[in-house]
What does this fold into?
Amino acid sequence: MEAQKMSQAEIAKKIQACLKEIGIAAEVSISQHEVIVYGQTEQAGGNLRIISQISDRTVTPSGQGSVAHEIARAHLSMAMVRPSLSSRSYGQQRTTTTAATVFDKAEFESQP
Amino acid sequence: MEAARKKECGNMPVLSNYWFENTDFRGNTEFLSQPHCAGCWAWINWSDIGSTHSTLVWERSDGEIIVDLPPILNAQDILAAVDAIITSPASRTSGINAGWIPWKYVPYYGQAPGRHGDLDLLVNVFFSFHVHTPWYCSDADGTINYYVVPYLDGGGHLGAYVDGWSYNYGGGGPFCTGSINDKLNSGVPAGMGTLQKMLDTRLALFANSTFSTLYLLPGSGDKSGSGSVDVDEHVSLVLLP
It folds into this structure.
C-alpha cells in the first residue's frame, strides 16, 4: 500500500510538472486512496479546467454496517416483546398470537 | 340494556385502520381511528382510499401510553449530539425523522438475514446531510440512518439498542465520492454510540415502570379522526401497562 501511495504521489508530481511546463499552476490533493491534481487557466478568452484523479478503488455512494453480532445477541436475549408484523392469519383460517392480523391478498388467493 | 351500554362506554377502545402506499406496510399512510364502546361495533366508511397496497387494522386499548418519537428525537441535546457526528464540510440539513422499517428492507439485511424476523419492525432514525466539495466536484446530498430495536425485557422494562447504520447520497462526482465515503465511514458508525447514550438517557425515564406490550403505530398514534402520514418517517412507540 505504501509503495502504491508513493507511486500515486509520483504520478501526481509528474502531472503537476507537465502542467507547470505549459504555464498552468496546478494543486495536488492527497487522501488515503486518491490523489487529485487540479488547476485552471485562461486561454483564448475561456476558462480551462484540468483535473486528474489517481485512485486505487471504485466507490459507491452508500455504506452500511451493524453492531457486532455478540452485542445484538446480548440485547435480543433479553427481549421478550418486540414490535413485529410477522404473525399472520387468513380470515378465520388461522389465529394469531399478537393483535396484528396481516391479510396478504396474493397468499390468500393462492389458498385452495 | 341502555344502562349496561352506558357502563360499557366507560371503556373506550379505538379501532384504527391504516392503508399503506406500498406493500409490507411502507410509505405514505392513510389512517382513520374510531373510538367505540367496548362490545359495540366500530365502523369505517371510506369511499376512496386511493392507490394502496397493504393495510393494517388494530383494536387499541384505551390504556395506551403513546410516545411520539420525532418530537423527542428533535430535542436540542440530541440535535447537538447528532451534529457532532458529521463535521465540516458535511452538515445536517433536516430535523430527525423516526419511521418504521421492516427488517427485510434494512440495507444490511443481506449480511445476516436471520438476525431478525423479516417483518420485525425497526425504528429508522434518520436525517439529511449536505457536503460542500471543492470546485472540481458537485456537492453531495444524502441521508444518514440509524436502525433502533425497541423491546420489553423479561421484567417488562423498556429497552432499545442501536442495531446498525447506513448512508447514501447523490452528487460528489466525479472525483470526491471517495473522500466523502472516508469521512462518513468513520463518523457514521461512531455515531451509534452517541445515539445509544441519548436513548439510554430517555429510557431511564421509564426505568421504574413495567409494561406488558410494546408496538409501533404510524404517525402520532392519533386516537380519533383521519389523516395521512409517511410511516417511513414518523411513528410512535406505544406501551401498555
About this structure: Residues 30 and 228 of chain B are 4 Å apart (CA to CA). The longest helix of chain B spans residues 177-203.
